[in-house]
Every structure is written in C-alpha cells, then in structure tokens.
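As practice, study what follows.
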Amino acid sequence: MMRSWEGINERIDSGRVTVVTAEEMTEMSASIGVAEAFRRVDVVTTGTFSPMCSSGVLLNTGHHSPRLNYRRAWLNGVPAYSGLAAVDLYVGATARRESGDRGEGGEYGGGHLIEDLVAGRQVRLTAEGHGTDCYPGRAVEKIIGLQELRDAFLVNPRNCYQNYNVAVNRSKERTVHTYMGPLLPDMRNASYSSAGQLSPLMNDPEYRTIGIGSRVFLGGGIGYVSFRGTQHDPSVRRTEGGIPEGGAGTLFLTGDLKGMSREFLRGVRIPGYGVSLAVGVGTAIPLLDEEMARCASVSDREIPAPVVDYSGDYPEMNGRIVGTTDYAALRSGEISLLNRRVRTVPLSSYPMARRIALKLRSMVEQGLFRLCRPSAPLE
C-alpha cells in the first residue's frame, strides 16, 4: 500500500487523519509490528529542544527621523550586524552583550535578546549612522518591542543536527568548559544533546519527506526548511538500518518571530563558554509507505552515538573517539565506557521534545498544520 501527500492532506482537512508521535510509533511498532502500525497511522510527529548556536534573528526596525543607515548597532547591548540594507540588522544567538545593566556582559546575549522579544519585553536599540545625503542621521536610541519592529524573522543556518557527539573529558585534573557544557576531569560525566528517537532527522534518515520547502514547527510557530544547513554531511557512515553514526544532516530554518513563543525559544547561558538559544523544532512525517513507517519506528537503542574526548581543542574525530554508546543508555543516566560507569548529562530536554511532538500532533489533528511536499531534496 502506498499513500500520497495529497491523500494525507485530504485526511487532515476532513478530520480523519490518524497521527501519533515518534515515541508512540516506536511503541506501537514494537507491539503490533511495523506493517500493522503503517496500516493504522498516517502521520508521525517529532520534536527536539536544545541549544542550537547557529541561530539568530533578522530584524527590520523601520526608519527613523531623520533617516539613518546603520553603521553600528546594539540591542540591549548585544552587537547586531548592520552590513545589510539601511535598517536591517542580524543578531546571532551567541553574540554577547558588550554593556548593559543585567549582570555581566557575558551573561546576556543574542539568545536572551530573542527570548525577551518573543516574551513581549521592550528592548533598547542604540545605533550609529554613516551620515549620507539620503540617510543623514548620525545616531538613534529608542525603546522598541517585537510588535514595533517592521519585520522579525528567525533565521537559523544550522539546526536539528542529525545525531551528534557525546562529550567527555579524559584529562585528569582540569574541568573543561565547552559548548556541550562543563566536562568534569577523568570522565566523571558525559554530555549529550539529542532527542534520539524523537529527533526529526532520526525519523527520516534519508530525507525522503524533509527537504527544501518543508513546513516545520519552529519556536512555537510555523517555519520552513529554507535549504540544507551549514555543515550538512549525509556521507557520514550509517548503520544497516540507515542511521548515521555521527553528525550528518542539518537544516537551515526560517520563520516569523512574531508568531513564536517564549516557551519554545529560550536564552541559554553555558558556564565558562558563552550564550546560546534553545530552539524547539518539530516535523510531521507522512507515512507514504511501509519503509517510512519503519524509519519512524526507530528506537533509542538503535541509535549509536560516538563518545568523543573534548579535553583538548575542539576535537578532530581521528584519535578522539573513546567509545560508542546508544541513546537508551544515555537516557538511563549512565553509560559504560572503558570499563567504567559514567554519569550522563543531557544538554537537550526530552520532556520538551515530547511536548513539541504532542503539540504538533494536536495541530495536525485539528487541521492547523498541513504537510508540504519538498520542492527539492536535501543534498
């Protein structure tokens, strides 16, 4: 039996669609088999919620009087890139505040600014102008909020990494501060960052239904896959079931910030490293055939994860892999590594990933989220 995109969207429109989360699909397939689960289910929803450093916002502030072409600009003391058109600014999630009144500058950054905007808080814009004939303004300072901005788009060049490293620190005495969080010496903890069996690209490992133009749940609103994400690398070695054994696919995501929620966009401070933005993303995967149902039934124990030593500079993989584990072991709270038991620490939130998948399931069931056939594949 085969299904079509059009047929599934017709079932969504008529209220007859059957939707389960990826977690529920895994349990169903284990209980009644993949073939029967496929017969019963039309759509599987996924979710992930984790710091995603390659994220940011593109803002158009509207013009000022006198008109001004931004040369340099800050929002709540966070530097904004101004090398665009006159009043367009891009603020990266990891940009750190240079000055301000909420703690030290490094404690607050682009991720917190984005959270403040979606939470409805006012922020301070400070900018300098070039001073030209058509844009004579030299400086502006004003308080603005999200609704006063002409446009505000979340523009995230690399989200939803398909699998990733588990980080440990093999040095004997020194704690290492990394983007994976603080790593205690002598491998006293292991940090990981994936929703495993709920993660979007784990449930469509060959990118058959997720591609350029796909509609996604993004930050509590609607977003789209604009292109492959930076560092996208489908060539990573895979298991017999097609699951990549390390970081592979990534997504470039965009969406309207004005439709998003603080619940699913949170500023993050990573001690000793810097700042970031935790982003909530979910996808709705149409079960076009039994093979898609098999892929969407993946379990945590089937997903391998390389354990990598981060005790030096950002590690090259060769010589740094100290073992392999799986996401069932990681979620249990400890893994076996080099004949030791090592405590695991999630950087991502599985409960939030589950909440996103459930929310997206409800949206599809209510006809609020139709599926988009990709206009081009991820390559």
In short: The chain has two domains: 5-53+156-365, 62-149. The CA atoms of residues 1 and 148 lie 51 Å apart.
